[in-house]
Amino acid sequence: MPQDDLRIGVFVCDCGTNIAGSVDTDALVEEARKMDNVVCSIKNRYTCAEPGQQEIKKAIKEHKLNRVVVASCSPRMHEPTFRGCVSEAGLNPYLVDMANIREQCSWVHMGDREAATKKAGDTIKAYVARARYLEPQEEKEIAVKQSALIIGGGVAGIQAALDLADAGYKVTLVEKEPSLGGLMAQLDKTYPTMDCSI
Amino acid sequence: MMDVGRHPNINLLTYSEVESISGYIGNFHVKVRKKARYVYENECTACGDCTKVCPVIVPDEFQQGFSSRKAIYIAFPQAVPSSYLINMDNCLGTNPIACGKCAEKCEKKCIDYDMKDESVKFDVGVVIVATGMDVFDPTPLDEYGYTKYENVITSMEFERLISAGGPSDGHFIRLTDSKRPETVGFIQCVGSRSEKYGNPYCSNICCMNTIKDTLLLKDHYPDIEAKVFYIDIRAFGKGFEDLFRRSKEAGITYIRGIPGEIFEDPKTRNLKVMVEDTTANKIEEHEFDMFVLSVGVTPRFDMPEVQQLLTLSKTSDGFFMEAHPKLKPVDAPTSGVFFAGCAEAPKDVKDSVTQASAAAARAETVLSAGKVKLEAITSTINTDLCRFCAVCAKGCPFNAISVNPKKKTISYVEALCKGCGTCSADCQFNAITMKHFTDEQIIAQIDAYLEEDPYSKVILFTCNWCSYAGADTCGLARLQYPPNQRLIRTMCSGRVDEKFVLHAFKNGAPMVVVSGCHYADCHYIDANRQTQKRVEKLWDKFERLGIRPERLLLEWISAAEGQRFAKIMRDNEELRKKVTKKEIEHTIKVLTEEEEKKKAKKK
Predict the structure, then answer these.
(1) Partner-chain residue, chosen from A77, A111, A183, that has the shortest CB–CB distance to B480
(2) Closest residue to A109, CB basis, from B21, B483, B489
(3) Which of A108, A150, A176 lies at the smallest CB-CB distance from B474?
(4) Residue B213: helix, strand or coil by DSSP?
(5) How far, CA to CA in Å, does A151 sit from each of A177, B81, B104, B124, B362?
(6) Rounded-to-integer distance, Cα B276 and Cα B601, Å
(7) How far apart are the CA of B543 and the nearest CA of chain A, in angstroms?
């Protein structure tokens, strides 16, 4: 069940003209404002930039937001950014979600502003609906084993192994062939310095 | 190579293969099979007495087959580790009666025919994939006569012939008469930049490699004549243009045009070509003593094995895909895994070394932090609702759940859960909740999408790693498709519950698409097989209920397949247009009745 005192903030991003070029972002802001539990709806030129993030943090405090929906690019791009942003404002990072209105909307429906705006509006609506059910999550911290596996003992594997080993980490280098060197060992000289490969 | 061999922090396992990797960033459990060398690596002094008495003669792979080696051998004199080994496929037998000459000769007694493969297990925090590349084999290109004409060689064979450590002691000779060639031709882009043969991509290294080869030839034999046939010379790196200029100044001729075919004069064994010189606009004939095919590079033949070990993805050219082509060029999509060298794309030595140092630095950011945050998105099980049917346990790709139906017990190790959500979708009793991707959340999204004008919308379930990323790739490339799809992201297609699909249809969706990673690409080992089973079950159900199964699509789309994503979207829009209002109303009616029947049964 969604909690009773939901206060959702929606942040619509122009992304310069990347989104605003094919989608009516002003209309989206107005549409979002009318959705249930949405207490603020704000447009940014670049939500991911510092002023955009400040705006989110400010709104979380001012409007006592407890859920945030950012309508911008792919979460595969900026989810970590906005998770970081809301947690700096004291919100659990899992209480923010992203409606992808760029990669999956403005960039792929460039010739049809009306349909793209309709799809973007739907996407925001769906992610606001989802946000009502978001709950805080805890990430557990675990220790990292202080060692590395390197698969392949060609020139790249050798360099990576030496760098990590010199930095003091234990490295296991696994090579399929009986000896190191890979393809490079078979070369006579290498460009541009024309020196020996081995 | 020597530094690696003696570094106190490096454990070197050669002649070894990684068999399995489990776990996650910070805690990978690795199992390696160290193949038997039949020679004690640390004891062997590489004196070479053994190889002298070995009676078996086979082609030497290191020398590209131009010379021979024995069954007991060392790849090359500077090899690390500096130890011989026996290739048991070549050896006459482990039974000393059959041969046993090497063991007899070895003073240090470090040959052991009974040596067994060893299994080595250890844990690491990070993994660097530096598996390299293969060289293109031009044998299928009949027009160049490779293997038919002995004086046509590849650039890799050139390396061995010009090398002082090679089979001819660095004397560059023709294979037909062992004479030094007076004239040598080079053909560029063999196996590269071709939609017809080999690979469509540029192999990156061949132009500069040929320029280097021509300088080596001139260095050895100032009077030698060499001509290079090319499409473009790509001398784009630091110092490259300078080297190209040096080659031209040394008297090498560069001709823009690729010969169509190589002909051999059977008497002289010389090679003739006709070529259109596109800068001079004329057809020319050239004759050479030797031809070097500047062959491209290809993804390694054993990449699929490594891909499965670490659930990696490949780009359309077959090399490993980075987490982001610009912003995370060294990171694999799997956390804690990094790329170095040609596994990610064709590279020369300098770029391989650069990326290797970058990979090491990226790996260090994880190692030096000492701590890493684990996935918060996992399942939770409500044991009060569980009926101990064990369906979840069977479907879990990570064996995080175990159920004893007889004793009516269930145990669940949350640390093993990777969050695919398959269990939650499989559970018929709503006993399992997938955090952050709950039933309520997903149903709320479907409802929001279908609240207005549902008949025009296609509900599309996408998995975070492949099909959702494929949709992003499609956007990055600005590939256009009809605007009727409404996407719902889950971590894995295995999360897509039957009830989500039914809910969408019951609320008026004309079409539903379930999409995920290709089979071998699934980021949760094989969770997408559960997806397939579930969709097949739904198709059967639809058949029974008189709903056209074609309205539910199952599509595998990789993160790189933006074009495929766009095509599928265009295709399913065509299908959607054919779904009539009457048909949708019928579906809603049938599914509502079905649900009511179920409810009545439960009561």
Answers:
(1) A111
(2) B483
(3) A108
(4) helix
(5) 12, 17, 36, 12, 16
(6) 81
(7) 30
B179: DSSP letter:
P
Separation CA A67–CA A81 (nearest Å): 16
- List C-alpha distances in Å: A20 to A33, A51, A72, A105, B2: 18, 18, 10, 11, 58
Domains of chain B and CATH, by start: 2-124 (no CATH), 134-298 (3.50.50.60), 374-436 (3.30.70.20), 437-602 (3.40.50)
pLDDT one-digit tens code per residue, B222-248: 999 999 999 999 999 999 999 999 999
Residue B2's pLDDT band (boundaries 50, 70, 90)? confident
CA distance A12 to A42: 6
In sequence order, the β-bridge partners of residue A149 are A172, B127
Smallest CA–CA distance, residue A54 to chain B, in Å, is 24
Residues of B in contact with A183 (CB under 8 A): 132-133, 135
pLDDT single digits (tens) B356-397: 999 999 999 999 999 988 779 999 999 999 999 999 999 998
The reply to whether residue A190 touches residue B75, judged by beta carbons under 8 angstroms, is: no
Residue B366 CB contacts under 8 Å (≥ 6 apart), including other chains = A144, B25, B26, B125, B126, B336, B372
B96-130 pLDDT, tens digit each: 567 889 998 999 999 999 999 999 999 999 999 99
Distance from C-alpha of B299 to C-alpha of B318, rounded to nearest angstrom = 6
* SS3 (DSSP) at B249: helix
Q: Are B352 and B384 in contact (CB under 8 A)?
A: no
| Per-residue pLDDT at A57 | 97
Q: Out of A143, A171, A186, whose CB is closest to B160?
A: A186
Q: Are B24 and B335 spatial neighbours (Cβ–Cβ below 8 Å)?
A: yes
Residues A77-91 as b/e (b if ≥16 CB within 10 A, e otherwise) read bbbebbbebbeebeb
In this structure, what token pair is assigned to residue B324?
A: 């982001």
How many other CB atoms are found less than 10 A from the CB of residue B134? Answer: 14
B-interface mutation test, from A6, A81, A113, A163, most B Cβ less than 10 A away: A163
ipTM of the complex: 0.83
Q: Are B17 and B32 spatial neighbours (Cβ–Cβ below 8 Å)?
A: yes
- Are B353 and A155 within 8 A, CB to CB? yes
Q: What is the rounded CA–CA span in Å between residue A178 and residue A188?
A: 20
Local structure of B337: helix, strand or coil: strand
pLDDT of B94: 62
A100 DSSP β-pair partners: A72
SS3 B446: helix
The whole-model pTM stands at 0.76
Q: Do B372 and A141 touch (CB under 8 A)?
A: yes
